[in-house]
Amino acid sequence: MGHTSERIPVLALWSAPRCRSTAFARMMTERDDRVVVHEPFSRVVDFGEVEVGDRVAHTEQDVLAALRAIAAHKPVFFKDTTDFHYPALLADEAFLSAATHTFIIRDPAEAIASHHALNPDLGRDEIGFARLHEIFTAVQAATGTTPVVIDSDDLLDRPAETVRAYCAAVGIPFVPDALSWKPGMRSEWQSTSKWHKSTSETTGFTRSKSGGAEAVAADPVLRAYRDYHLPYYEKLRAVALQP
Fold this sequence. Notes:
alpha/beta, 5-stranded parallel beta sheet, 12 helices
């Protein structure tokens, strides 16, 4: 149980890649009630360093320390993706229990199609649903409660209801005005801009057309990836908020 550590005002959103977490983070930026940190864990693994507030982090441990430092002064929201594995996070039971960890999911076939379009060399593990479930399980073990999960299809189909349910579940006020925003590429997205182009062109939670699931089903390699990740998605979907 996580009763040994103090709660810290860090709200995390964990996502497999291409599950619309950037759009959710864009809404959190629009709220303007907490410091928003963009993908600190994946960026430190990918680039070897990342700015977190006024610090430059070079390891996962640095990122954890920097998030705690910001949260000592102002509430924090960060979102991150599970295209990498985060052993230091998984080992930091105090952070797993003290922060509020939430999860966003998407049908794996759709996520894989979107991911593969940006990265044709896509490997099985970086699709990320198994790693996402691993973090979910670690948080559940550390806190003794089931973390908040939202399905991004619900977010697109019923944005106000889904965000309202999320806010109620994590104990923050619902801000309807944050559901729409001005389009444009954000400065914090620049180093990974191709991944955020679609969100930069939006003004809210909107669905784009995709025949992705069919293309994945027709490709033996991608279909095998989908079949590997589907059980993890389904476990998370089973506990997702019903807006």
